[in-house]
Design brief:
The chain is α+β, with helices and mostly antiparallel strands. The protein contains 6 helices and 12 strands. Strands 9-8-7-11 form a 4-stranded mixed β-sheet. A hairpin with a 4-residue loop joins strand 1 and strand 2 (about 15). The longest helix is centred in the N-terminal third of the chain and has 17 residues, at about 30-45. Mean pLDDT is about 85; it is low at about 1-10, about 20-45 and about 65-70.
């Protein structure tokens, strides 16, 4: 296979793609054009533009362009939690204290409808299985078939970012050491979409927010089952042995990126909030999606 090309196997997995930043064919984004129009108006009305004027106009246009809907994001307060689980796989050990700043995380995975807006403005390739969404029945289901680069591009476009692995786990299980977002009770059909042996693509995926009984202590939905979720970190099976206590962001190098949460076809132990998986960042799978995060504003002293 030619590097940067694409291939798809029989399991709905697409690999070998270049990052989205190199696939875009549009010379200027919609945001850049809007900024140019704003600057043109500034020149017309106020005369010569200084560097400060330019930066101010760009900042204001980015703020207007931001698609952040605070109502759809959940605030995770600053503070410590214990990450990992003692009776789990080796890469989930040792249990260790992590201190995070406050952040917001999407209350559910990014939907087909939300991703469609991104595709309208950014001239990038649609994800794997996108043709299945054209009949309109899947608009409120999590977008599938995105690679790590796609997920990061969407989050940046929406003025957000991918959550770190530590942020994802805290949002999923809180601070009391529970095994699943809802507690320690074994998963049941009312908690999550999991354990299914038959299905494929969007037909196997539930609409976001369908499992209220499976919400996390903070009210975050769909963090167990349905679709795997990309996070920002690289994967290292031994990372917990030497990770920093304050705001860990994963190892500095490594070929794999972390996936969390399990999917519709995962067994009960796999959808535990501490379970870690990983894949090459260029893979597009029919059971992988994502959600975004952003830093919470710092309180004034």
């Amino acid at each position: 296979m030619v590097p940067g090309g694409e291939s798809e196997d029989g399991n709905g997995v697409q690999m070998g793609r270049a990052p989205a930043m190199f696939r875009s064919r549009r010379a200027r984004t919609v945001l850049e054009m809007k900024c140019s129009l704003a600057l043109y108006a500034l020149v017309t009305l106020a005369g010569p533009v200084t560097a400060h004027d330019t930066q101010t106009a760009l900042k204001q246009e980015r703020e207007r362009h931001a698609k952040i809907d605070s109502a759809s994001m959940v605030l995770i307060p600053a503070g410590p939690f214990m990450m990992g689980r003692p009776d789990a796989a080796a890469d989930e050990q040792p249990v260790h204290r992590v201190l995070l700043g406050a952040f917001y995380i999407d209350g559910h995975e990014i939907t087909v409808a939300e991703y469609a807006k991104f595709l309208e403005e950014e001239d990038v390739d649609p994800p794997l299985l996108w043709q299945e969404t054209r009949n309109g029945d899947h608009l409120q289901k999590p977008v599938l078939g995105v690679d790590w680069y796609d997920a990061g591009s969407y989050c940046r476009w929406s003025n957000k970012r991918l959550p770190t692995e530590a942020e994802w786990e805290k949002a999923a299980r809180g601070t009391d050491g529970r095994m699943y977002p809802w507690g320690n009770a074994p998963p049941a059909p009312r908690h999550a979409n999991f354990g299914r042996e038959k299905g494929q693509g969007y037909s196997a995926v539930a609409t976001v927010g369908s499992f209220g009984d499976g919400r996390s202590p903070y009210g975050v939905l769909d963090m167990a089952g349905n679709v795997w979720e990309w996070v920002a970190d690289r994967y290292d099976e031994h990372y917990y042995q030497h990770s920093p206590e304050n705001n860990p962001r994963g190892p500095a190098s490594g070929p794999l990126r972390v996936l969390r949460g399990g999917a519709w076809n995962s067994a009960a132990p796999i959808i535990a909030a501490t379970n870690r998986s990983a894949h090459v960042p260029s893979v597009r799978r029919g059971d992988v999606g994502f959600r975004c995060a952003r830093d919470a504003p710092k309180e004034s002293p």
